[in-house]
Request: fold
Amino acid sequence: MSSEAVAKAQAFKLKVIEKIQGLLNEFAEGKLNQEQFNVLYERYSGQLAMAQQALESGNAEAINQVTAGKSTIALKQEYMGKAIGLGIYLNKSGVAIETLGEFDVSAFVISPVLSEFTPLMESGKPIEPRAGKLKDKRWLLFTGKRFTTVATLFHNPPSPLQIDEIERLHQDFETANAALLERGLLDSKKLAYPFIVFIQKKLKQS
Reply:
């Protein structure tokens, strides 16, 4: 291998190592979901192995082969959690107040979680967000607050930062509508919906 090819292989190896570190940091900061991390880590590990193989074998062509295919950005987008829609439910009755976006989730999926969340909320215990896989790459995230439970439907699993954002929007929903929720005045046309921004933003990215 020429000195130029060696330099190219070494530079590529260092670049991949930097990408791996960046990926680890992004996951630690909650910016990526598990599927994004796994797909990208596998990609970078393969690139690192090829770079090492190129250095050991003297065949720089291996590097040209490994850089082909989908870009990292495209892969990240492909596996990113995208909010499709959500449903808002009253804790006491389990009645749906409103649905936003595309939310075609059966009541048989929603009801057991509402039944589990309600007594915990009534006792004042904090409810941890719960995300579970449905099918066809669809995931359902539940968040529970004082008056309501929100079920958000995602394509691909939500990242920790997306879960935090839904929790914040849910709290804003309850704060903005506290008087109406407290009195049981649930005309959906009179309620404020901070979630609309999140749903619309994610739909535009899809």
In short: The domain at 82-205 is CATH 3.30.450.50 (Beta-Lactamase). Residues 39 and 161 are 19 Å apart (CA to CA).
